[in-house]
Amino acid sequence: MNSTADDEKILRGVLDEWKAAVDAHEPERVASCFTEDAIFQGLHPYSVGRQGIADYYDSQPLGMTADYQVLETRQLADGLVLGYMSVDFSFVDRPTLAVYLSLVVEQAADRWYIRHYQVSSLG
User: Origin, by domain of life (predicted)?
Assistant: First the structure.
């Protein structure tokens, strides 16, 4: 899979599952989208591994939803894809937070997982 269309399809497969879990406020399900030793950088101090990811999403307010747009993709190696996205996190009681998300997804067996996740806010 060398084409950008293939890479984007891979990213969307992972991100659609991530989004569904975020929107449903299911932190353990969100964490299952990541590798066991994923490096995770949200808008708080970073963590490594699924427990830190689950804790991060558990602390997010009920009703928070995520909408993303894939901006760039690169295949780094077989079974390793880089993605750069814009993400809008919407809340019930405050303005939408627009951020940029860079991630690396890795294939393990027949599934793709997020290995590295880093959010940046340029505003």
Answer: Bacteria
For the chain, the domains span 4-120
Comparing CA positions, the residue from 112, 34, 38, 100 lying closest to residue 72 is 100
**Residue 13 is encoded by which pair of tokens?**
């497969």
Based on C-alpha coordinates, what's the Rg of the chain?
14
How much of the chain, in percent, has pLDDT values that exceed 70?
97
Q: Mean pLDDT across the chain, nearest whole number?
A: 95
Tell me the pTM: 0.93
How far is C-alpha 20 from the geometric centre of its chain's CA atoms? 11
Q: Are 69 and 86 in contact (CB under 8 A)?
A: yes
Query: Cα 31 to the chain's mean position, in Å?
Result: 10
**Mean pLDDT along residues 59-81:** 96
Task: Tell me the backbone φ, ψ of residue 83, rounded to 5 degrees.
Answer: -135, 145
